[in-house]
Amino acid sequence: MNILDKIIIDKKREVVLKKSIIPVSQLEASVFFGKQTISLSQTLRNSNSGIIAEHKRRSPSKSIINNNFTVEEVVKGYENAGACGISVLTDGKYFGGSLDDLLLARASVNIPLLRKEFIVDEYQILEAKAHGADLILLIAAVLTREEIKSLSEFAKKLDLEVLLEVHNLEELEKSIMPTLDMIGVNNRNLKTFEVSLDFSKELASKIPDEFVKVSESGISSVEAIQELKPYGYKGFLIGENFMKTDNAGEAATEFINQI
């Protein structure tokens, strides 16, 4: 069993527990539930940099990346740097995140927020909306076409955008549907953790133009972004590269200024 399989088994258990504690009515009563969402896809289309900066304390492949800064410090730094949006990891067991991180991020900035999570249930989409997210991530590797369809349709009803993550042609072909806004190619194989920009390059021409193309993981230089832009990529998700520094906001500012 690979790490992704383990995460999904744990996630399904976690959702069952959460549903037993916090009813849907409580999520729907959140102050953020009626808030108008901010479009990341539009922001990316109009941006020169396309940076989606990530708040990420640790990961299964790297263990602790950075525990020294508050969520507010990191996300305000990203907003001031000119990031198009912010990805907030909310998985606790493997990434050290929480829904509180999303809530604090929403209270601190006014740019699009992605709930970065292993979504397997509509309940998690309600949580995302209740905690101030503007969009959700769906991972093709762990969902069937029917699940992608029903989850993305549910997100749309809540006025949330959908970033679908793929890693190969098979995942892309099973996933393309009108309820998606952005398609992200993960340059890290979630099963082996091997990283290569070739994954983004190989899939670029297969992604229809109506979707905003996003390249995720393994981007650590401005050169990598310049390399991917001719392939039609408008968004670049960067996490560890900023988070592993002494000041994520400053690192993001320096990076974006070079683009």
TrEMBL record:
It catalyses: 1-(2-carboxyphenylamino)-1-deoxy-D-ribulose 5-phosphate + H(+) = (1S,2R)-1-C-(indol-3-yl)glycerol 3-phosphate + CO2 + H2O. Its EC number is 4.1.1.48. Pathway: Amino-acid biosynthesis; L-tryptophan biosynthesis; L-tryptophan from chorismate: step 4/5. Residues 4-253 form the Indole-3-glycerol phosphate synthase domain. The keyword Amino-acid biosynthesis applies. Keywords: Amino-acid biosynthesis, Aromatic amino acid biosynthesis, Decarboxylase, Lyase, Tryptophan biosynthesis. PANTHER family: INDOLE-3-GLYCEROL-PHOSPHATE SYNTHASE, TRYPTOPHAN BIOSYNTHESIS PROTEIN. Belongs to the TrpC family. This is Indole-3-glycerol phosphate synthase. It comes from Flavobacterium ginsengiterrae. The gene is trpC.
